[in-house]
Specification:
This protein is of the alpha+beta class and 178 residues long. It has three domains: 1-37; 41-118, Immunoglobulin-like (Sandwich); 126-175, no CATH class. The chain is built from one helix and nine strands. The chain has one helix at 2-36, and strands spanning 47-54, 64-71, 78-81, 91-95, 98-105, 111-118, 126-132, 144-151, 171-175. The strands form three sheets. A three-stranded antiparallel β-sheet has the order 1-2-4, with no helix packed on it. Strand 5 and strand 6 form a beta hairpin. It is rod-shaped, with a radius of gyration of 38 Å.
């Protein structure tokens, strides 16, 4: 009888182990299905922020750049700008002035969008001059001068009068009448 009890106990232990194995396998498969199934992007923590923006330095150059940073979501991230090709780098270079739509997408295909404007080089240069004439009108005195005021554009401003040397001084003095 002792032998039969051992066999029964071993059979019982085997059945319990088999039951636990099936239970664990089923639980693992359930979790696996949950991971593989669709992901709810409305619950995603994916966000993108602007790190740097380099405005254009010349009206003829395409030297602007935008750098963004993604966080949250499920890495790795891919980035695209203006419906262009995706890239792994969050840096976009050789940009001209304009409005750019940047999209970051994570491994679960969730995305976040950022719109940024590169204003570019402002070429709205205006100048005005105030003339102070040689009031004595004497042939040997040169007391007249011109003072130029400039707004906009990019400094330093360069000035020249009568094909003389170019200077950064906005006042031309010792001018004779005429």
């Amino acid at each position: 009888m002792k032998g039969k009890r051992v066999v029964i106990i071993n059979a019982f232990v085997y059945k319990v182990r088999l039951f636990l194995f099936i239970l664990m396998f089923t639980a693992c498969e359930y979790n696996k299905l949950e991971i593989i199934g669709e992901y709810d992007c409305t619950k995603s923590t994916l966000t993108m922020t602007l790190l740097t923006s380099k405005q254009l330095t010349d009206c003829k150059a395409a030297n602007g750049s935008i750098e963004v940073m993604a966080s949250g979501g499920i890495p790795p991230y891919s980035y695209s700008i203006g419906n262009g090709l995706s890239q792994s780098s969050p840096v976009f270079t050789q940009l001209v002035s304009g409005s750019y739509t940047i999209v970051v997408t994570d491994a679960k295909n969730c995305s976040d969008t950022l719109i940024h404007e590169l204003t570019g080089f402002q070429n709205s240069l205006t100048a005005s001059a105030k003339v102070f004439s040689d009031s004595l009108c004497l042939s040997n005195t040169y007391t007249g001068f011109i003072k130029v005021s400039v707004k906009g554009g990019a400094q330093p401003y360069l000035f020249q009068i009568n094909n003389e040397t170019v200077t950064t001084d906005s006042v031309f003095d010792k001018l004779k009448y005429g």
